[in-house]
Write a structure and sequence with these properties.
Length: 227
């Protein structure tokens, strides 16, 4: 007597879940973006970088003349300065990794030294009867405001905490360098005061006036400074 062979029973399978159409489209879009990004970074697709390259357009309006100011000063000397600014801002009871900034900035700029000839009055200029000798009394040289050169000034490094990085995302001026620029200008101005820039300006002004008056026929020219 033969024993009937039972066929193995197949497990009952549930309904097959298919990926929704929107998920397929999103996956395809992500793959396309990944391929394009890889092509841009690795330049594996010729001409792809040019196709998605950035373009800069200047849409600024025309500059308007707001005012005109007469200048009577003689710029007699100019000093070039450079300073390294290390500005750190910390928050009490919070580590620097959470809240705090530190910026290392190289500031380069100039300071002009000038003599204001507009302050010279009639009593400050004396000429003898033969017009061969002249004595001039001028105000001491002064320093102009420091002017930073954007082409030679730059940030070396910037360290920011997590909260500062998040704040930059919602700020109108992320990573602003206004604070370090003001500090660099202040240090440059202080360095100009300690330099011999004003003395050089007075010496150059004296040489200019002597050369000018000598060419007009004066044999003796004396220039003094102070009120």
């Amino acid at each position: 007597m033969t024993t009937p062979v039972k066929k193995p029973t197949r497990p009952v399978e549930g309904p097959v879940r298919r990926m929704p159409g929107w998920a397929k489209a999103l996956t395809a879009l992500v793959l396309v973006l990944v391929v394009l990004f890889a092509g841009l970074r690795l330049s594996v697709v010729p001409g792809l970088k040019d196709l998605f390259g950035s373009e800069t357009q200047d849409r600024s309006g025309p500059a308007l003349l707001k005012s005109v100011q007469d200048i009577s000063r003689y710029d007699a000397a100019s000093g070039n300065f450079q300073v390294v600014v290390d500005l750190e801002k910390d928050t009490r009871f919070l580590p620097d990794a959470i809240r705090g900034t530190r910026t290392l900035y190289v500031g380069a700029g100039t300071v002009d030294a000038f003599v204001d000839l507009g302050k010279v009055g009639e009593d400050d200029v004396r000429v003898n009867g033969e017009r061969t000798s002249a004595t001039l009394r001028l105000p001491h040289a002064a320093l102009g405001k420091p002017a930073l050169d954007p082409d030679r000034s730059y940030a070396v490094s910037k360290q920011r905490g997590l909260l500062d990085r998040l704040g930059d995302l919602f700020s109108d001026n992320p990573n602003g360098e206004q604070a370090v620029q003001k500090l660099a200008a202040r240090h440059i101005g202080e360095a100009a005061k300690d330099s011999e820039l004003k003395a050089r300006a007075e010496s150059n002004t004296t040489a200019m006036l002597r050369g000018l008056l000598t060419s007009l026929g004066f044999e003796e020219v004396r220039v003094t400074y102070g009120t």
